[in-house]
Specification:
The protein is α+β, with helices and mostly antiparallel strands. It has a domain of 127 residues: Cathepsin D, subunit A, domain 1, CATH 2.40.70. It contains two helices and twelve strands; from the N terminus they run αβββββββββββαβ. It has a six-stranded mixed β-barrel with strand order 2-3-11-4-10-9. The protein has a three-stranded antiparallel beta sheet with strand order 5-6-7, with no helix packed on it. The longest helix is centred in the N-terminal third of the chain and has 62 residues.
Length: 236
């Protein structure tokens, strides 16, 4: 009986200990939970305060008066600058992209295209034929009279043969070269001309750099700037 009574007392004591431990653990958990709840509540309060501050800032921004639009400045009309006029250099003749030139040996006024890209002047010649006279090379050719349209036969001594490469082909062409007296405006000189069939072109004469150099200035925006001159000593 004593043993049984002692056993019962020990069991009851253990049960009381377990209950006490459980209560202590629960109390500790309740205290930790209360701390977490307090922290969450503090965070919520801080968030609400930040939200109120943002709302107040947004309201302040909306209350700022909008700037009034500035009317555009009235347009100022400036007079157009005067068109630049190219003045010829002293001692040089101003010519346009097209001129009428006088060929002394033929006594003819022929339409000419002024071409600063061409090295040598060129003359429209048909039926070109080489021959020899007194041991020298000559060339016989015909040109079309600009007024009557008739073919006029000419003979001139051959100066040389020039090798010409056109811009639209890679094949070189050998052309006869003669010397002719040419008058453009009041400028008279003797220059070399290559002979070539220019029937497919608009102008019977092409004036190149060998005629223009140091003598004339070209204004490509103009035509017929140099008045036609027929020297009295010209002979057909």
């Amino acid at each position: 009986m004593l043993i049984a009574g002692c056993g019962t007392t020990l069991i009851e004591q253990r049960q009381h200990d377990i209950v006490d431990n459980s209560q202590a653990t629960r109390a500790s958990c309740d205290a930790a939970l209360a701390v977490q709840q307090d922290a969450i509540a503090a965070q919520q309060q801080a968030l609400e305060a930040q939200t109120q501050q943002l709302q107040a800032l947004q309201q302040a921004i909306e209350d700022i008066p909008q700037p009034q639009p500035v009317p555009p400045a009235p347009a100022v009309s400036c007079p157009a600058p005067p068109e630049a006029v190219q003045e010829p250099e002293p001692g040089k003749l101003m010519v346009g992209r097209r001129e009428t030139v006088w060929l002394e040996e033929f006594g003819l006024a022929l339409p000419a295209r002024i071409d600063t890209g061409a090295e040598t002047a060129s003359l429209d010649a048909r039926d070109i034929e080489m021959f020899e006279r007194d041991g020298r090379n000559w060339v016989r050719f015909s040109i079309v009279h600009p007024d009557s349209g008739e073919s006029v036969e000419m003979e001139r001594r051959l100066v040389r043969r020039a090798r010409i490469i056109q811009a639209n082909t890679d094949q070189a062409e050998r052309r006869a070269v003669i010397r002719l007296g040419i008058v453009v405006g009041d400028v008279r000189q003797t220059a070399e001309f290559t002979l070539s069939n220019r029937s497919h072109l608009d102008y019977q004469v092409l004036v190149g750099r060998n005629v223009l150099s140091d003598m004339m200035i070209v204004d490509v925006s103009q035509v017929n700037l140099a008045p036609l001159s027929r020297p009295d000593d010209s002979s057909p």
